[in-house]
Structures are given as structure tokens and as C-alpha cells.
Design goal:
By secondary structure, the chain is an alpha/beta fold. The chain contains 11 helices and 31 strands.
Length: 426
């Protein structure tokens, strides 16, 4: 794996995850109480013995830079690094990244300096565990120019992905990015060729790209030069390359979830609390997910009722009831509070008592007597006493930035640093 260079595409403004991306890059969005989205692809790389990793991003990258610099120090004999490359102005290009391919093209001169054989291109907003060694080895054994990691999907999900048709040998012969209508139906295939049984193939008759690619070094360089006006891999580069290059499909059989929307992010986090077998587990000793070490004290719980939930370090919980929820680092919850089906992203620091903060009710955290259901509470939010965040009107979309919250897909999202006053009802 010394001859592989990993490129993690951090995405654009992260509008689908807004307002969680209001003040942070999409790969820096907190995950599972203590991680960040970027920890998933970077950890997969480290576990796969790939130690040369660039992260390409352009929006609100300060917290992402800080997280990576404090977490991943891969120096030593293997020349390892995890480095952020933000969009920049150069004599040859003064624009921000226009798409996935354009982001790689703008830094291609840097990537060409490395003596490598393959570029591994990854996304920064997926939840999965994958051994890239097997993936790259499949790419080499099939003598592919490009290999696409794929999963079978049903018709409901299919139009959200790039779809393909493959031969019995796994070669990609047709590729269509997010088709709809008749174009979608034309991409139906017999997925028993991927090893699915007839019933599974009937339920999932489409082959979807995961947005994870392996390119031969020179093939990527040639394609970015030949199609200089193309800015996206899935929409343009790969469909144009399919008739002329050896494109191979690599079937991924584990859990994989695109968590680039508020609803998908919310549901994937809550799924971690399912017992006894969550769809994704952070408890794999052979392939751990790494993150920043914070040296926090143990979580403290006083007379609490907690069911099917995950708690990160440094939490302070007092006579509250929590079910099917994820609580991030340094979360504080006061007495008689009920939290159900919610994500509490925690806090970046503890708020020490000051003359202006005479009780916990005005401090970072959740005040006494509050009820929170089906919500995401971003970091450092102050939730006062007797607050109700329940969306009783079942509103699907709302923007109340002046009041400190949004509603996306029926999920209430309280903004980072927001202050919800005592008795407020959402």
C-alpha cells in the first residue's frame, strides 16, 4: 500500500447538512458522540496501511484543520501524513473547486510528485468500515484502469446514486449518474451476478456507485487533461471513460450509509444505539475508528434512567431519563429532563461558574424539566429550564435562525452556540 495515495473529497458547502455545516466543514461534523465524519475514511486508510492522505475541502475548514492536526501525526519512517488542501488561487486557476474532478485537477501538480501507482479517491460523508487493501488488490488483479466500489440498491434509493451495468466478468459497460424516469428503469440489471439470491436481486435490481474509486496513476492524469472542461467524476469523467477504458466494479458487502443529509445523519447516528446488533459498530478491535484524544473525566450519572443510548466521555447527568439517544462529549443534563430519539452533540468546553451564571440553568447544556424528542442539539447550545423541543405540529421544514433553530425533514436542529430561553416551546 506504499504505492497508493488517498484523496478524501471533503465536499462543498454542505448544504444538505446545513445548519450543522453553518460554522464547520462537512467532514468536521461530529459523529457518534465523540468522532468526526472525517475519522471514518482516515481510519479506514490507516487500518489498510495507507498512510499518505490528503483531504480536499474549501468551506469553513478551520475546525477540520485543527482536528486533523491534533489527531493524526503519522510521521516516522513510512512518510505518513494527513493533510488538508483547501481551495486556493493560483496563476493557473483562480476559482474554488467546481466539483470532485476539479478539486483533484487543481492540486494535480502536487499529487504527481509522489511515486505511486494508484490514486484512491474517497468521500468524507460516508459511514462504513472497509479494507482498502482488498479493494486495491482487486483493481490490480483485474488490470483495471478505474475500479468503482459498488453496492446493490432498491428502486427507492437508486436515483440518488450513479448506476451502472456490468458484464459477468465485472466490467462496467454503462454508467448513468442519478437517472430518473425511463433512464432509471433502463439501468435495471440482474444483480444475482453480484452474488445476491433471486429474492434479494428482485428487491435490489440496481448497481450503485459508492463514490469510491481507484484510478491508475496515469489514467487519472490523462482523463483530467483530456476532459479539461469536466468538473465531476460521477457526472462526467467516469461516463466518458466507460467506453474507452477498463472499468471494473468491486462489490462491497458490508454496512455503508451516505450520511450527507440531515435525515440520513440523524437516522445513522440513532441506529448505533440499537441492541444487541447495531448495523455499524465502533467496537471492532481489528479495525478501530480513531479520533482525537481529549483526556476527559468519566461520565457521571446521578439517579438516571438510560436505555438504548450512547454516552461519550465527560458527561454530567442528574436525575434525568434518556432513551434511544446519543450524547456527545461534555454533555450536561439537569434533573427531570426527558431526552428521546435525539442527538446531543455536547460541548467544546466546560462552562465554569461566573457571576453571570449563578445556576446550571444558564450554562451550556440542558436545563431542568426540559423535554427533547426527535432533535439534534449542536455543540455549546444553552437549553433553558422547562424547554420543550418536540415539534408537536409535525412541521417538516422551517428556518428560525434568529431563534436558534431549524427544522429539516421534521427534525429540529438547534444551532451551535444557540440560547433557547426558559419555557420556550418548539
Amino acid at each position: 500500500m506504499k504505492k497508493v495515495l488517498a484523496l478524501v473529497l471533503g465536499g462543498g458547502a454542505g448544504t444538505r447538512l446545513y445548519p450543522l455545516t453553518k460554522v464547520r466543514a462537512k467532514p468536521a461534523v461530529p459523529l457518534a458522540g465523540k468522532y468526526r465524519l472525517i475519522d471514518i475514511p482516515v481510519s479506514n486508510c490507516i487500518n489498510s496501511e495507507i498512510y499518505k492522505i490528503y483531504v480536499l475541502t474549501q468551506f469553513n475548514s478551520a475546525s477540520l484543520n485543527r482536528h486533523l492536526s491534533l489527531t493524526y501525526r503519522l510521521g516516522g519512517f513510512q512518510q505518513g501524513f494527513v493533510e488538508v488542501l483547501a481551495a486556493q488561487q493560483t496563476p493557473g486557476d483562480s476559482q474554488w473547486f467546481q466539483g470532485t474532478a476539479d478539486a483533484v485537477r487543481q492540486y494535480l501538480s502536487l499529487f504527481k510528485e509522489w511515486d505511486i501507482d494508484e490514486y484512491l479517491i474517497l468521500s468524507g460523508d460516508h459511514l462504513y468500515r472497509m479494507d482498502y487493501r482488498a479493494y486495491v488488490e482487486h483493481h490490480r488483479q483485474t488490470e483495471a484502469d478505474i475500479t468503482l466500489s459498488v453496492v446493490p440498491v432498491d428502486e427507492q434509493l437508486a436515483s440518488a446514486f450513479g448506476l451502472m451495468k456490468i458484464t459477468s466478468a465485472g466490467r462496467v459497460v454503462d454508467f448513468s449518474e442519478k437517472p430518473t424516469g425511463d433512464a432509471l428503469r433502463q439501468m435495471r440489471v440482474d444483480t444475482t451476478s453480484l452474488g445476491l439470491d433471486p429474492q434479494q436481486a428482485l428487491q435490489k435490481p440496481y448497481i450503485a456507485s459508492m463514490g469510491i474509486y481507484v484510478f491508475k496513476r496515469q489514467v487519472l492524469i490523462d482523463l483530467l487533461d483530456r476532459y479539461a472542461d469536466c468538473t465531476d467524476f460521477g457526472k462526467e469523467i467516469i461516463p466518458k471513460a466507460a467506453p474507452h477504458y477498463n472499468l471494473q466494479a468491486y462489490l462491497f458487502q458490508g454496512y455503508w450509509e451516505d450520511i450527507g443529509t440531515i435525515k440520513a445523519f440523524y437516522e445513522a447516528n440513532l441506529a448505533l444505539t440499537r441492541q444487541p446488533n447495531p448495523p455499524f459498530s465502533f467496537y471492532d478491535p481489528e479495525a478501530p475508528i480513531y479520533t482525537r484524544g481529549r483526556y476527559l473525566p468519566p461520565s457521571q450519572m446521578l439517579d438516571c434512567q438510560i436505555t438504548e443510548s450512547m454516552l461519550a466521555e465527560g458527561c454530567q447527568l442528574n436525575r434525568c431519563r434518556i432513551s434511544r439517544s446519543v450524547l456527545g462529549v461534555r454533555t450536561r443534563v439537569e434533573a427531570d429532563t426527558v431526552i428521546e430519539d435525539s442527538l446531543i452533540l455536547g460541548a467544546d468546553y466546560y462552562q465554569a461558574p461566573t457571576p453571570s451564571v449563578t445556576s446550571h440553568q444558564a450554562a451550556i447544556g440542558i436545563g431542568p424539566g426540559s423535554v427533547i424528542r426527535n432533535a439534534i442539539i449542536d455543540k455549546n447550545a444553552v437549553i433553558g429550564a422547562r424547554v420543550q423541543i418536540v415539534n408537536q405540529g409535525e412541521i417538516q421544514e422551517a428556518q428560525r435562525e434568529d431563534q436558534g433553530f431549524y427544522i429539516r425533514d421534521g427534525i429540529v436542529v438547534v444551532l451551535k452556540h444557540a440560547h433557547i430561553p426558559d419555557g420556550f416551546v418548539i
